[in-house]
Amino acid sequence: PVKHKRHNEKVLSELHQLQNGSLPERISTIMERTGFTGINLCGLAFRLGVNTRKIREALENLFSRQKAILLDGDDTSVISDFFYRQLEELITRNIKAYHEKNPLQEGISKEELKATLGRAVSTKLFNMALRSLGKNNNIISDKDSVRLADHQVQMTGNLDSIHLAVTVIYRKAGLTPPALTEVIAGFNNQKSQVQSIIKMMIKNGELIKINEDLCFNREAIEQLRKDYKALLIKDGKATPGSFKELTNLSRKYIIPLMEYFDMNKLTVRVEDHRILREKI
After folding, report:
1. From CA 138, how far away is CA 149, in angstroms rounded?
2. CA 266, CA 258: separation in Å to the nearest integer?
3. What is the pLDDT of residues 98-123, one digit of tens each?
4. Which fold has domain 158-216?
5. Which residues contact 20 (CB under 8 A, 6 or more apart)?
6. Tell me: the pLDDT tens digits for 196-225?
7. DSSP readout, 216-232?
8. Does 158-216 match 83-148 at the fold level?
9. Which fold would CATH assign to domain 83-148?
10. Smaller CB count within 10 Å for the chain: N or C?
């Protein structure tokens, strides 16, 4: 058991509440002692030596006064409203800290966010707090990530110059861009920033990622799509050979690009050639 200093006023006050307080006051003291873990109906009955019917009545009193939060209706698990509000504040602070450290990231993954809160916070309590914060328009929660409602991706300082440099690389390269690893390696000690910039550019549609190695400038891909479609309409089909005549590219780019247009439903492969999938 934890040893308390004799003159610790908080502990003395809690002991007084447990011995002399009303049933709602005694329950409140126990809930504060259990922190983020909370306690269920059976646990309260055991600690207080009071039948569950009276405890339920006292809990209804605490719920109505917003002094307690129901975590689980199955076993009547409850948590102090004070700790619940603390958790909401902690979640908000941690998301804000993540945004400040990672200005190019749209949000923090829920898994990573939960890990910052410690083991005492259950998944059920965590998700409940996220729903509450979302309902109050404090955060925006997606399937796997969460961000502050007023957060916007920002590029400050050298990030803006990196973004411009990456943009220039891909615009100049056209349909023959360097491998993604080469682009990142060219920035020496700024690799993590470049990776974040490229990820953002892909998400924003500035770059089109066709496989793990190749990204293209969006305008270059859009123009190629138009030219490729015109070829398919004129000839009725396309082969790697006719694609090469169209683009003057090597197989390093031809095969991935033709597969990209298959995946994006412009074309469909039939034996050794492609035909137009979409309506003309």
Report:
1. 5
2. 10
3. 998 888 888 999 999 999 998 889 99
4. Arc Repressor Mutant, subunit A (1.10.10)
5. none
6. 899 989 988 999 999 999 999 999 999 999
7. EEHHHHHHHHHHHHHHH
8. yes
9. Arc Repressor Mutant, subunit A (1.10.10)
10. N
